[in-house]
Specification:
The complex is a heterotrimer of chains A (about 775), B (about 425) and C (about 210).
Chain A lengths: L6 E6 L4 H4 L2 H10 L5 E5 L5 H12 L5 E6 L15 E6 L1 H5 L9 H20 L16 E4 L3 H12 L4 E4 L41 H10 L3 E4 L2 E7 L5 E7 L4 E6 L1 E4 L3 E3 L16 E3 H11 L15 E5 L19 H16 L2 E6 L6 H13 L3 E13 L2 E8 L4 E7 L1 E4 L3 E3 L5 H9 L3 H12 L40 E3 L9 H24 L14 E2 L9 H5 L5 E3 L5 E3 L9 H5 L5 E2 L5 H9 L13 E6 L3 H13 L10 E6 L7 H10 L3 E6 L13 H9 L2 H7 L7 E5 L7 H16 L7
Parallel strand pairs in A: 1-2, 1-3, 3-4, 5-6, 5-11, 6-7, 11-21, 13-19, 14-15, 14-19, 15-16, 26-27, 26-28, 28-29
Antiparallel strand pairs in A: 8-9, 9-10, 12-20, 16-17, 17-18, 22-25, 23-24
Chain B lengths: L10 E4 L3 H12 L4 E4 L22 H14 L3 E4 L2 E9 L2 E8 L13 H5 L3 E3 L8 E3 L1 E2 L11 E2 L7 H9 L12 E7 L1 E4 L3 E3 L16 E3 H8 L20 E8 L14 H16 L4 E6 L8 H9 L4 E5 L4 E4 L5 E7 L4 E6 L2 E6 L1 E3 L27 E3 L9 H22 L5
Parallel strand pairs in B: 1-2, 1-11, 2-3, 11-22, 13-20, 14-15, 14-20, 15-16
Antiparallel strand pairs in B: 4-5, 5-10, 6-7, 8-9, 12-21, 17-18, 18-19
Helix pairs in contact in B: 1-2, 1-8, 5-6, 6-7
Chain C lengths: L1 H11 L3 H8 L14 H5 L10 H9 L3 H5 L12 H5 L6 H14 L8 H16 L4 H9 L4 H10 L1 H9 L17 H23 L1
Helix pairs in contact in C: 8-9, 9-10
The chains are: A alpha/beta (about 775), B alpha/beta (about 425), C mainly alpha (about 210).
Keywords (chain A): 4Fe-4S, FAD, Flavoprotein, Iron, Iron-sulfur, Metal-binding, Oxidoreductase
InterPro entries (chain A): 4Fe4S_Fe-S-bd, 4Fe4S_Fe_S_CS, FAD/NAD-bd_sf, HdrA-like, MvhD/FlpD
GO molecular function, one term (chain A): 4 iron, 4 sulfur cluster binding
């Protein structure tokens, strides 16, 4: 298998490289210092002819490892794509030419910069291997869907329709979940187009909930196996080879092997006993929106009767945002997003079936989109009264209820009498305990902290997935208990690879949205299973065949990798060595960065591929007045920002980068090993700039915790500097956004200014 | 000449905005062949023109960088830019699509060096900046544009500028003889992701968008706030370039209105809250922002963001649909109306008024190539009658980016169901 | 008329909105108001209204029957239609205002000395006498509405216009003595009578 390593270099002389740089010198450096077997040049390497030249060399076995000295790795990506070869790219165009002024006095330092990038690219490619899948992975097309509600049923059905077998696990003895009692649903469609003359004719009406029909289709589908009265008692493995124990109430357990998982555990209705001010629990005629569906179902199209005495309801009040959008203890701080249209629908029951007065007391009526606003008008047409008002209290006296509220439009405190009050209560995510709360117990340093962490877990809900993962039993939560990832661009990217959350356990939502969400989650699960079968990574390093390789004999079982992996990919074996699960891995390299003894690496990204770049620059001596500044830049944000700064500079924006900078893209700041920093300082770098992504609650790290982990790790770098008797200013960590086109080069230039102040690093090699 | 290899297991995605791009990538990463057709010369659509996303206040180009890389690296995706679908015929599982590609006059050789732009003199309104700035007749639509190739404006073809551009190009990338090309190819399913367009603000007569330079739309304000945009990120008055500290945001400008768009455009409340932070970030305590609204629709977890912005004392909220805007003698827009909570009439002078403009579906109202169910608002409904054609994102409803992506991911599965059934995998 | 008011109170008890829908011209639109306030801000005379249109709609929904029907506000509408063209729900607000005013009048709830109402009554009475409006009489009545002294003052103020009109034959002093009628005055009066009967019948059927 291991064919002879053939290192070949290709330097483009186009885009001004040939005119401004000494290409011959770079060729010599590539072959002599960079140890490449050969180094060719081409006037337009990215053109068909140049690319063919490289392809031919690879095909002829002349090049297994390719160093390209041309433009940024982000440019001409399609042209320079050689899946069978290892490749590194020296960024001569954006990284050097465009960011440096074309003047005679700058020529020398600019050339040095280019020379170093050639050295670095040669070093990088020497230590790279073409990744190949480990063979650990399998293709298993069967999916597991956890949750028998509308979300879960939809996910199962849609996956089955695409040809994938599904195990659908429902906790109840029937399908339907929280939607079982629904009498009617909020209409899915907006008003039809083909109406002449008026815009408000034939507005959508409450419609059949379709839950039974969905369940019927599930039962009739031979690709779907339904497990009722069942829970997942253990989930182990990884995408492509998950193993789930499905235990039924009767005590039986079956184990199913699946490729990927959709968690569609929906929500739990809010417990309205937290709302004594609205007489919930005091008067049977105060019900929640969930309970009302049952009453409506019982009425079966006839007049809805109030629970206390069976009297037909003649007037009903809906209190919106009951126990929601509120920071009172026991209330939900968020808006549940479904209650406005739900109340309109329920008010319409009363208009239609009782001819009753129906009043909706709301603050903001939230009926977005086409169908939403149409349905609002539909409710108005049905003579539902909408009053902007904030209810303060419901009092039950002599068989009637008095709702006290502030009329926000008429600006007065007032009250209304009614037979029935419906509280528009919210959705509480039905999710398991937060894995990081579980991890906190273990990570606590003192007994006190441990106790505090344990107490936090005391009231945690039971686990949904019972993952046997090192980092806890369930999907990580973002806020308010929802298992969301807070990616705007990538809503399905949970932090447990191959397990996708769908519906209201991810974010509060109505039934239509939950069903749409289920379709997307099903696609992601299918995709994950298929990619696991190929041994390839999923988002964001899609198709990457590399995986963490680990030198067991060097491992000190410090557990940093198992704790820090943002995706919980690493378990521990019986001897407490890390157990990598390849298809759970997203190839961010956080484990590599975390490892103090440098035993973790990837075929195409390792301690060496970066470390050797650092070591292979030409280090001028202390008295040269040519400092060297190492910049490690996140490849997704900071590095593109530098590229775009170069673009701007090229078009005359006046941006420059110090010629003393040597920039290396990293997958994530989380992958940065402290050894790179100490090596760099020991080699003689005068300053180091680390540029990662925002890491607060609104983090922008695509590996979620990578940037935060790096920051924590690097917070200790000051000690190292002090031990070396170096100024702490020599290392700076920044959060850099992709839009920081001016700022990114400026931060590096600032470091150059700092070095001028504090002086050169005495450790020059 | 562009060639497309496709079969009836190929998925055609129409529209390369965030929804179409997502649908194409998700399908391709599941192993399906995809042809992605985009009308503009680059991918990314309207999100490329946004400065920040709500609620994280992060930058759209950040996610776009990943999506571009995913698309570029994936051999399953064929991207056609400057291309429009002119016809679709056939049925689910067996369509024939016809696409017209307009000439870019720049071929694959282009290295995006910018020499042609430097050589060309003619300038035109920059559509990327909604006409707030000018661009050259040879241009890269914006810095991160993918494909990263320049475009020649057809208006310079036949002028000396075209020859100058050609002469300036060192890599022979300019081909002035390029002609429009019509391509036909088979596909099994179609994802229609043509998105939305801002409602024509000039049609909201009382707000005077066409009369007062200091009344602008939310999409224009987004360009203004972008440090890489036409105003270098300075929040100013277009009339005189003076700082705009006192800013009004008017909700439902064209939305929820039987005179304009029937639907609620969903995003505008959140977008205005986001944009309020631009003003308060720029001018701190000196900022003075008023949001005029009917219902503040910070739905579901967006409530957190609403609370966050509500904590900024420089941002006020008035429950009112303003009646009209007039300009005073100094060109200041004066907003007239009644605060419905307590019925106070106001005539408030501002430096700048931003109309939170509605989202109009970019779906051909008449003459969709095949029969399709469109609702009263003009969005495509999910319906069995649509056969193998599935709307994704803004073509299906007024959606924010997160929901559009979610919806587009689902649309990818719908299309996969069809092409898998062509292969004989259907239940 | 007081009886009709009582009858209506009995009939609609708690639901004033329903009463408005059944009895007020275009009243069925009141429910469609989305409470944006654009009508109120658009009204050129809005600052003279106690309750601008949207507030009236909210008061109707809140069941503030007496306050609405005895309000002065809807009488302020000058039919400029600004509100109608701007209303996002396309409510015929101008018509609803007139409808409310008319309904209040029918129920005898118009505030005393409401000048618009008084003028409207004057106009109607004048019209009924001869089947056409006698402008001289109407003008004089209007001038002397607030007493003799006031009437003289107003008349003197408009003296010049009056003289001009006399000179050009636009106004005949003879009209002050009876004035001329439409061709078929009897026919006109019986037509009005019939219309009144029909209206009373409708109210009897729907109203009580």
């Amino acid at each position: 298998m291991a064919a002879e390593k053939k290192l070949a270099g290709y330097i483009c002389t186009g885009c001004g490289i040939g005119e401004r740089l000494n290409v011959e010198q770079m060729r010599t450096i590539a072959t002599r210092e960079g140890k490449l077997g050969a180094c060719k040049t081409h006037p337009m390497l990215c053109g068909a002819e140049g690319v063919q030249m490289i392809r031919d060399d690879i095909a002829a076995g002349e090049a297994t490892h390719v160093m390209i000295g041309a433009c940024s790795r982000r440019s001409k990506m399609e042209a320079f794509s050689f899946p069978d070869a290892a490749m590194s790219r020296a960024n001569l165009r954006e990284g050097v030419l465009w960011l440096r002024p074309d003047t005679e006095e700058q020529k020398e330092t600019t050339q040095e910069m280019a020379d170093d990038y050639i050295r670095m690219a040669c070093a990088e490619v020497r230590f790279m291997t073409v990744p190949s899948a480990s063979g650990e992975q399998e293709l298993n097309k069967t999916l597991l869907v956890v949750g028998g509600g509308v979300t879960g049923m939809t996910a199962a059905l849609e996956a089955a329709r695409a040809g994938y077998p599904v195990h659908l696990v429902a906790e109840e003895n029937h399908l339907g979940g929280v939607w079982t009692d629904l009498y009617k649903r909020v209409p899915f469609r907006a008003a039809a187009a083909d109406v002449v003359g008026s815009k408000d004719i034939d507005l959508p009406q409450p419609e059949d909930p379709g839950v039974d029909a969905l369940a019927e289709r599930i039962r009739a589908n031979e690709r779907i196996t339904v497990h009722l009265n069942a829970r997942i008692t253990r989930t182990s493995g990884a995408p492509g080879r998950f193993s789930a124990d499905i235990s039924t109430e009767s005590g039986g357990t079956v184990t199913e092997n699946v490729g990927a998982i959709v968690q569609a555990s929906d929500f739990k209705p809010y417990d309205a006993s937290n709302l004594p001010e609205f007489a919930y629990g005091k008067s049977p005629d105060v019900v929640t929106n969930f309970e009302l569906e049952r009453l409506a179902k019982d009425a079966n199209g006839g007049p809805i009767r109030r629970p206390s005495d069976g009297k037909e309801v003649t007037s009903v009040a809906f209190i919106q945002c009951a126990g929601q959008r509120s920071d009172k203890p026991g209330h939900l701080p968020y808006c549940s997003g479904f209650c406005c249209t739900e109340s309109i629908k329920q008010a319409m029951y009363f208009r239609e079936q009782n001819g009753a007065d129906a009043t909706v007391l709301f603050d903001d009526l939230r009926t977005p989109g086409a169908a939403g606003e149409d349905f609002y008008r539909s409710g108005q047409q049905a003579q539902v009264t909408f009053s902007k008002g904030k209810a303060s209290e419901v009092v039950s006296e002599n068989g009637t209820l008095k709702v006290h509220f502030k009329d926000l439009i008429l600006n007065e405190d007032t009250a209304m009498d009614c037979d029935l009050v419906v509280l528009a209560t919210g959705q509480v995510p039905n999710t398991g305990p937060d894995p990081y709360a579980q991890l906190a117990v273990e990570e606590a340093e003192t007994e006190e902290e441990k106790d505090a962490a344990r107490r936090k877990l005391e009231n945690a809900p039971p686990s949904i997935l019972n993952l046997d993962y090192r980092q806890g039993t369930d999907l990580p939560q973002l806020k308010h208990g929802f298992v969301d990832s807070h990616f705007i661009c990538f809503p399905y990217e949970t932090r447990r690879t191959g397990i996708y959350a769908a519906g209201p356990c991810r974010r509060p939502m109505d039934m239509k949205q939950a069903m749409e969400d289920a379709v997307g989650a099903a696609l992601k699960a299918i995709q994950s299973a298929e990619n696991a079968g190929r041994g390839a990574a999923v988002h964001p390093r899609v198709g990457d065949l590399s995986y963490p390789q680990f030198r067991k004999e060097g491992c000190t079982q410090c557990k940093r990798c198992t704790v820090e992996c943002p995706f919980g990919a690493i378990n521990e074996d019986e001897q407490r060595y890390p157990l990598f699960n390849e298809s759970r891995c997203r190839r961010c390299g956080t484990c590599m960065g975390a490892c103090p003894v440098r035993v973790i690496s990837f075929e195409n990204y390792s301690i060496d591929t970066v470390g050797q770049q650092i070591k292979n620059v030409d280090m001028p001596d202390e008295f040269s007045e040519k400092p060297r500044i190492l910049a490690l830049a996140c490849e997704n944000d900071a590095y593109p920002a530098l590229d775009m700064a170069a673009q701007a500079a090229q078009m005359g924006d006046g941006i420059e980068l110090t010629p003393f900078a040597r920039v290396i893209p990293v997958r994530c700041l989380g992958s940065v090993s402290l050894s790179w920093i100490t090596d760099a300082l020991n080699t003689g770098y005068d300053g180091i700039v680390l540029m990662g992504c925002r890491r607060d609650d609104d983090y922008q790290c695509h590996f979620v915790r990578g940037s935060a982990m790096a920051a924590e790790r690097l917070s200790k770098v000051g000690d190292t500097l002090q031990q070396m008797q170096l100024e702490t200013e020599r290392v700076a960590v920044y959060e850099v956004a992709i839009t920081d086109i001016q700022r990114a080069p400026q931060l590096i230039n600032d470091m150059a200014a700092t070095i001028e102040k504090v002086g050169m690093n005495p450790f020059k090699m | 000449m562009t060639e497309v290899v496709a079969t009836n297991e190929t998925i055609l995605v129409v529209g390369g905005g965030i929804s179409g791009l997502t649908a194409a990538i998700e399908a391709a990463e599941t192993g399906k062949q995809v042809v992605l057709v985009e009308k503009r010369p680059y991918l990314g659509g309207r999100v490329t023109q946004l400065y920040k996303y709500f609620p994280k206040l992060c930058f759209p180009t950040c996610g776009l960088e990943i999506n571009q890389r995913r698309a570029r690296q994936n051999p399953n995706i064929t991207v056609l830019t400057l291309a429009e679908v002119t016809d679709i015929s056939g049925d689910k599982g067996n369509y024939k699509a016809t696409v017209r590609i307009s000439p870019r006059y720049v071929n694959d050789n282009c290295t995006a060096c910018g020499d042609c732009a430097k050589a060309v003199e003619a300038e035109f309104d920059d559509e990327y900046n909604y006409g707030l700035s000018r661009r050259k007749g040879a241009y890269l639509p914006y810095r991160m544009a993918q494909p990263s190739r320049y475009v020649l404006d057809p208006r310079i073809i036949g002028t000396p500028d075209a020859d100058k551009a050609k002469a300036a190009c060192k890599v022979d990338a300019i081909d002035l003889d390029m002609q429009p090309q019509d391509l036909s190819f088979p596909c099994g399913a179609v994802i229609w992701a043509t998105g939305w367009q801002p409602y024509d603000a000039a049609r909201i007569q009382p707000y005077g968008y066409d009369r007062f330079p200091n009344v602008i739309t939310s999409v224009e304000f987004e360009r203004m706030a972008d440090p890489n945009g036409p105003y270098a990120g300075r929040i100013v008055r277009p009339s005189d370039g003076r700082e705009a500290k006192k800013v009004a945001f008017i909700q439902c400008a064209g939305s929820r209105d039987r005179n304009h768009l029937l639907h609620c455009s969903r995003i505008c409340c959140m977008a205005s809250l986001k944009q309020a932070t631009y003003v308060s970030d720029a001018y701190k305590d000196a900022a003075d922002v008023t949001v005029y609204y009917i219902d503040l629709r910070a739905i579901d977890r967006f409530e957190d963001f609403y609370n966050k912005v509500r904590a900024i004392p420089q941002v006020k909220y008035v429950k009112s649909k303003p009646a009209s805007i007039v300009a005073d003698k100094d060109g200041n827009p004066v907003v007239h109306g009644v605060d419905t909570e307590g019925y106070n009439r106001y005539a408030e002078r501002f430096d700048l008024v931003v109309l939170a403009i509605g989202m109009e579906p970019a779906v051909p109202k008449d003459g969709f190539p095949v029969p399709i169910v469109v609702n009263r608002e003009g969005f495509i409904e999910a319906a069995p009658e649509n056969g193998g054609i599935f709307a994704a994102g803004g073509a299906s409803d007024a959606l924010d980016v997160n929901r559009a992506v979610q919806h587009a991911t689902g649309a990818a599965l719908r299309a996969i169901q069809v092409v898998n059934s062509v292969r004989g995998m259907e239940v | 008329m007081g009886d009709l008011n009582q009858a209506m109170i009995e009939k609609y008890r708690t639901n004033f909105l329903k009463e408005v829908e059944a009895n007020v011209e275009e009243g069925e639109w009141v429910k469609m108001c989305m409470q944006c306030g654009v009508c109120s801000g658009s009204c050129p005379l809005g600052k003279f209204w106690d309750h601008p249109p949207q507030e009236l709609f909210m008061m109707i929904r809140a069941g503030k029957r007496d306050e609405v029907l005895s309000s002065d506000s809807m009488w302020m509408c000058t039919s400029c239609y600004n509100c109608v063209v701007r209303c996002p729900r396309e409510l015929p607000i101008t018509h609803i205002m007139h409808g409310l005013a008319h309904y209040a009048k029918r129920l005898g709830l118009v505030p005393e000395s409401q000048p618009t109402a008084a003028f409207a009554q004057m106009f109607w009475d004048n019209l009924m006498q001869k089947g056409r409006v006698n402008e001289l009489k109407l003008g004089l009545k209007l001038y002397f509405m607030n007493g003799f002294g006031d009437g003289i003052k107003v008349a003197l103020k408009h003296q010049k216009i009056g003289m001009g009109m006399l000179k050009t034959g636009r106004m005949s002093p003879m009209e002050a003595f009876g004035g001329h009628a439409v061709k078929d005055l009897k026919g006109f009066q019986s037509m009005i009578k019939k219309a009144q009967e029909l209206e009373d019948q409708r109210i009897a059927e729907h109203g009580a």
